[in-house]
What we know:
Organism: Paenibacillus lautus (Bacillus lautus)
Protein name: Negative regulator of flagellin synthesis
Region (Disordered): 1-37
Keywords: Bacterial flagellum biogenesis, Cell projection, Cilium, Flagellum, Repressor, Transcription, Transcription regulation
Strand content: under 5%
Number of helices: 4
Oligomer: single chain
Order of helices and strands: HHHH
Mean pLDDT: 79
Number of strands: 0
Pfam families: FlgM
Amino acid sequence: MKINESGRVNGIxxxxxxxxxxxxxxxxKMKRRKDEVSISPEAMELSAQSxxxxxxxxxxxxxxxxxxxxxxxxxxxxRLADKLLPYFQSYNKSGESK
Length: 98
């Protein structure tokens, strides 16, 4: 009585090789895949425009960044209220309750 037939063992080995080759193909696909970024002409134009700033504005932005980082920036409450007021007025005019 034969317990292990040679054909059966080869069948299992070929199955294992098939699985291994699929795994290698998957790994190769993952290695070949690369990210791509495409930037529209409009975005390129906006980027170029943002780089052309006057020095005063750049200095003001830098001061604001430093103040926020240091924790010394104070929100101008009156300007904030002026910006929020139209929103709340339109909210009440639309018929919705507070």
